[in-house]
């Protein structure tokens, strides 16, 4: 008899609160997670005190009753475990995994085309890497905890600090510039909206050691190339570009100390997300004069480089950098994708120069990707600075956009051959046929104990190219029967001639 209790499928929709104290294994029963109704009730009373929890976290579903068990079975109080993954996270059943792999393949292909090398980092990082004082949202959304050795660790919310850590670790042994890409999972305790989750995968491309705007131009080229490969056009999506040096110039105009720069950027990024008055209040608390606040708000509303030049003068670096990017964009052939928008500041503290964000032109979704120059991140980790620039591109918003535009690919299963013994006694022979084909690199599904009708249906479902039937009389003659499913052609072939 199975060691698992029978699953009551009608209970699968019930969602007990899972951030409770679960005993992962019952030593007595030696089987995985089931927990008692008593432990549900008493721990749920103390489990809802997280200060970051929003209404989003409140499950509107009633606590499930316990699964009735036969008296004396020893499982009177057990109930079905929540079959949903933790809130804001995803399972990837095969069809979702196919989509994810396909998307990652596009990311990898664009990275290869741009001649970037793949790198990887641990999802678990030291908390110190993410402690920043500028008040960024990301640092308040950390999944952080102490490990069993008493070390403060986090599930990384982004990848850039890990990349900076590796650049520092490699030191002078590497020759610059580095062009690195990575695809990895990131964790943020976010309020969930469409395309925003508590776990997401990010494709990052970063160029280390190039101070010139060429780096930004290359990165935008990569993003545009990706969109084009996915069938997205410049009338679907645009890339807004600005430079943090714009804000820097405004702060200089008002003699605001340089040390406030990162904090001011983080606050200013909230324009449009909270009211102007709230932003103004935060800026004044940070030490910005109300006159400067007015100046900042005015400049950030500009959407033309000429107007910006008229306000800041032509000798500020921001203007020169942005002009250079727009001029290179012409040569690359992607200028229709990019627009100047001074309100783009971005919410991460470490950006220092050009910043950019891709957005859907219908305005239905959050930013599709974002990045910029971060020339001073390394020195915040105690190293010498190296100019750096990059972007992060999430897997969630882009899939929403592809759905909206009807551009999701049709990704069925792809099996080359199905091998089926027509007789139970031929299981050894069928294994031999499957093994021979697999050695040749075919994807082979070996099926047995099914009716032929089921096998044909299955072949259709998995998009198999051929059905290879191992039958007694054919086998006696050293043959198998092959059915080509696309043409319905059927023939016999020698086993050693199967290709
Ligand atoms: P970020 O703007 O925080 O930048 O994130 C980059 C992208 O990751 C976003 O535009 C979005 O596509 C995706 N993303 C972020 N948070 C979530 C979420 N909660 N759910 C789904 N998708 C999300 C960074 O992380 C920088 N480190 C990027 C970078 C690399 N800058 C330089 N190099």
TrEMBL record:
One of its GO terms (molecular function) is histidine-tRNA ligase activity. Residues 45-92 are annotated as: Disordered. It comes from the Eukaryota. NCBIfam families: hisS. L-histidine binds at residues 158-160, 188, 202, 206, 346, 350-351. This is histidine--tRNA ligase. GO terms for biological process: histidyl-tRNA aminoacylation. It is an enzyme of class 6 (ligase).
């Amino acid at each position: 008899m199975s060691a698992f209790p029978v699953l009551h499928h009608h209970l699968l929709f019930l969602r007990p609160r899972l951030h409770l104290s679960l005993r992962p294994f019952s030593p007595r029963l030696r089987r995985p997670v089931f927990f008692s109704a008593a432990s549900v009730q008493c721990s749920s009373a103390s489990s809802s005190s997280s200060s970051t929890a929003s209404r989003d976290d409140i499950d509107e579903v009633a606590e499930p009753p316990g699964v009735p068990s036969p008296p004396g079975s020893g499982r009177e109080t057990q109930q079905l475990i929540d079959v949903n993954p933790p809130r804001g996270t995803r399972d990837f059943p095969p069809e979702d995994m196919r989509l994810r792999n396909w998307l990652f393949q596009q990311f990898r292909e664009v990275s290869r085309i741009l001649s970037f090398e793949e790198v990887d980092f641990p999802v678990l990082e030291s908390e110190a890497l993410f402690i920043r004082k500028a008040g960024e949202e990301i640092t308040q959304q950390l999944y952080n905890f102490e490990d069993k050795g008493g070390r403060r660790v986090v599930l990384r919310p982004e990848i850039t600090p890990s990349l900076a850590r590796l650049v520092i670790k490699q030191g002078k042994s590497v020759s610059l510039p580095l062009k690195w890409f990575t695809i990895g999972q990131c964790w943020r305790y976010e309020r969930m909206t469409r395309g925003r989750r508590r776990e997401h995968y990010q494709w990052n491309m970063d160029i280390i050691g190039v101070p010139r705007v060429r780096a930004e131009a290359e990165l935008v080229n990569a993003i545009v190339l990706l969109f084009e490969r996915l069938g997205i056009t410049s009338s679907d999506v645009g890339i807004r570009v600005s430079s943090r040096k714009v804000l820097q110039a405004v702060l200089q105009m008002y003699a605001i100390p340089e040390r406030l720069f990162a904090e001011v950027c983080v606050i200013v990024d909230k324009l449009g997300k909270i009211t102007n008055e709230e932003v103004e209040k935060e800026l004044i608390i940070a030490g910005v004069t109300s006159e400067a606040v007015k100046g900042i708000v005015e400049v950030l509303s500009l959407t033309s480089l000429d107007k910006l030049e008229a306000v800041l003068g032509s000798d500020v670096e921001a203007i020169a950098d942005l002009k250079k990017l727009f001029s290179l964009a012409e040569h690359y052939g992607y200028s229709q994708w990019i627009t100047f928008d001074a309100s783009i500041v971005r919410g991460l503290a470490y950006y220092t120069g050009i910043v950019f964000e891709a957005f859907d032109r219908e305005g239905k979704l959050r930013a599709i990707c974002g990045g910029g120059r971060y020339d001073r991140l390394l020195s915040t980790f105690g190293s010498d600075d190296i100019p750096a620039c990059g972007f992060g591109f999430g897997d969630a918003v882009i899939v929403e956009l592809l759905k909206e535009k009807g551009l999701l690919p049709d990704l069925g299963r792809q099996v080359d051959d199905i091998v089926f013994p027509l007789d139970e006694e031929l299981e050894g022979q069928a294994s031999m046929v499957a093994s021979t084909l697999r050695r040749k690199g075919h994807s082979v599904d070996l099926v047995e104990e099914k009716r032929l009708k089921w096998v044909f249906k299955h072949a259709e479902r998995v998009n198999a190219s051929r059905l290879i039937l191992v039958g007694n009389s054919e086998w006696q003659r050293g043959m198998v029967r092959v059915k080509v499913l696309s043409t319905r052609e059927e023939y016999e072939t020698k086993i050693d001639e199967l290709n």
